[in-house]
Amino acid sequence: MLAGETVLVTGASSGIGWECAQVLADLGVRLLLVARRQERLENLAQELQTNYKIPCLPQALDVRDRLGVQAWFQNLPPEWQCIDVVINNAGLSRGLDKLYEGDIDDWEEMIDTNLKGLLYITRTVLPGMIHRGRGHVVNIGSIAGLAAYPGGNVYCATKAAVRILGDALKQDLLGTPVRVTTINPGLVATEFSPVRFHGDMERAQQVYQGLTPLTGRDVAETVAFCLTRPPHVNIQELTLLPTDQANALLVHRRE
């Protein structure tokens, strides 16, 4: 159902974004891959073009840069400007400090990436979807947006905003064929925790100790499922948890 469609994946250089590219390449899409790490994107694009014989365009982009996002889109080759699907995956968390002890630079990085970056990308590509009468916006949220947890403060707030934006966007798009999906994963073993703890791998590994987390591929396959429903079906919100997790606070760890 997706063969030949142009799919934009943000944060495609690792984790869920990387796996979305892999899963969707197998469905025959054209992939527009963006992230900050150009070399990783180029390696991914080369791999996908070799293995799946699909067109890929890797381009370095920082979604936090509003003017940069606008210039990036304006300078896309014409054959890449008709974007059918956008997967707003770029995002991160920083630290687990109490709010009154938090690093404001970390706050701004999370807000600028998780929230403003998603808005910049969506605002840029959505008018074309509406004009062409087709499209799908997929936002990668988090169970952190469903309920706060200790130390999650600003990160949880950004993901709660992503969830509400998805709901609001669906209302704005009512009467058009454009679909909106928010996917809220629980614990996923990616670079998320090393990034949160600024490269402290020992602390990052403790997050998943004694349990079996989701993988990036698990989330990517869920994204593909949502994208391949019939046009009259819109999976508006979906929560995806490891079996060892009940919510943001409650997990089962085996000794």
Automatic annotation (TrEMBL):
It comes from the Bacteria. InterPro entries: NAD(P)-bd_dom_sf (IPR036291), SDR_fam (IPR002347). Keywords: Oxidoreductase. The keyword Oxidoreductase applies. PANTHER family: ALCOHOL DEHYDROGENASE. Belongs to the short-chain dehydrogenases/reductases (SDR) family. This is Short chain dehydrogenase/reductase family oxidoreductase.
